[in-house]
Amino acid sequence: MTKPQYEVVFEPTQEDLACIDRGLHEFNLECLGEQVIYNYHRVVILAKDQAGNVIGGVHGELCWDWLYIKALWVRRRHRGQGIGTRLLREIERAAVSKGFYKSHLETTDFQALGFYVKRGYEVFGELDGKPAGSTWYYVKRFLTEDRQGHPL
After folding, report:
1. Of all helices (H) and strands (E), which one includes residue 60?
2. CATH says 40-142 is which class?
3. How confident is the model at residue 31 (pLDDT cuts 50, 70, 90)?
């Protein structure tokens, strides 16, 4: 058997990424079976102004019994109006509608840690120094009800 060669690629192609993803998918399928693997969904919620311009949004993935929120953003001039809270609740409701009752995400101390904690998320991990001088937080929440006790 010959030794493998290793190549560092800083700007990978879609095919480079897809090759790795396919390999991992095949391994996961062997370990977990089709039922778990194929209950996967991507989800996006957009907030738009009267003219149809996007003023905020959230996107994530539903996979392995969890909603993973990849990003939530609201245009600066629209912040403080409840748009972020509504986006968060809408993606949580979408997850529950597909049978997913747990949510997790990452945020930093300078982004939105307080926002998520106020909305029922709890910190379960920290990574100091990401980025330098800041802390990266891992947060989670069970999606059975909102902070006022109303079902999602």
Report:
1. strand 54-63
2. alpha beta
3. confident
- Paired sense of beta strands 66-74 and 102-108, if any: parallel
Residues 6 or more apart from 44 whose CB is under 8 A from it?
57, 58, 59
Q: Encode pLDDT of 50-81 as tens digits.
A: 999 999 999 999 998 899 999 999 999 999 99
- What is the distance between the alpha carbons of residues 19 and 137, in angstroms, rounded to a whole number? 30
d(CA 119, CA 114): 9
Within 10 Å of residue 65's Cβ, how many Cβ atoms? 11
Q: Which pairs count as long-range contacts for 77-81, CB under 8 Å and 24+ apart, including other chains?
A: 78/47, 78/49
Taking the whole predicted model, whether its pTM rises above 0.85 is answered as no
Peptide bond into 12 cis (omega under 30): no
Q: What is the full DSSP assignment across 89-108?
A: HHHHHHHHHTT--EEEEEEE
pLDDT tens readout for residues 78-118: 999 999 999 999 999 999 999 999 999 999 999 999 999 99
- Residue 133 sits at φ, ψ, to 5 deg, of 85, 0
Q: What is the dihedral of CA 78, 103, 108, 132, to 10 degrees?
A: -140
How far is residue 61's CA from residue 70's CA, in Å, rounded to a whole number? 8
